[in-house]
Design brief:
single chain, alpha/beta, 3-stranded mixed beta sheet, aldehyde dehydrogenase (NAD+) activity, NAD(P)-dependent_oxidoreduct, NAD(P)-bd_dom_sf, NAD-P-binding protein, NAD(P)-bd_dom
Length: 356
Amino acid sequence: MASQKLQIFYTGATGYIGGAVLQLILQHPKASTFAITALVRDAAKAELLESKFGVKTVVGSLQDLDKLTELAENAHIVVHTADADDEAALKAILAGLKRRHEKTGDVPHFIHTSGLALIADTARGAYLASNIWSDLDVAALDALPPTAPHHAADLLVVKGDEDGYARTYIVVPGYVYGTPSGPLYDAGIAKKTTILMPWLADVFVRRGRAGVLGGGKNAWANVHVQDNADAYYRLFSKVLDDPSNLGHGREGYYFTENGECTLYDMCKAIGEALVAVGVATEAEPDTLSAEECDKYFGKYGDFEVVSLFFANVRCHADRARRDLGWAPTHTSDEVLKTARGIVDAVVEKQGLKTKT
């Protein structure tokens, strides 16, 4: 009976990160014992999830706070991959988990998605920082100001754990790259594109040349979309099998990375792709002016995009490797190889003519 199945509430099923994670959960050896309910904005994609994959869906958005609370209350595990910063949505989910605990005594589990902009510095491309963060350094994470990107939301999640009504885990991916594949993507349900390099490529195609801020000496940790999904899957599996040994709350940050690239190298790779398709004549990035930064980048939520892109985000995913047995296989040299495909997609989207 459905009532005897493990109730799971899932957000972000149609997303770039969330689709890859959900695919793996649907392939779990115990998947027949799961009753997964996903909140989905697109009714057509919701129907596909139900008919092709057996995922119950509720059509709605993160603004439907009453739905979020109800759906979270009905779940023993919540996997939230939809938005790292929507504090109202997070409060609604946490309210549901708290209500569940108060009514049933169950301590539900909440896997939340943050992002490594959390540890971004103010380099603006001018230097490569010597500091490399570890997800095992709880004191350093505690010392982050609430104004750090994503951190106000993270602190709400940690507080839920401290209050004892839920066990919480925060997955903190670096730059997630690569073209995901699998049934959810083949069915047209999940998004196939990431943010950082496509955003840069879109700007550089319109600009007619690659550019950097401050020399692009800063570095971003990166992780392939499939490796990233595997970390979530391992965390989910540990929650199922033996959560007693899992770090949670303040000690529940799980970075995902497998190396890093400087922004100069990423922008240069895009520049080389621009030359290859005939959009630019020079591959070497020049300097972005302040006016161009305002024109092309603007803000992403509360944060200046260009400052985030040209910040140092250097870390080691020590907790994920140690506690989850996570062993990513894709390496950073693959990041630069994605530039041509990204540029081709941008050029096609913008309707530009290229070299034949």
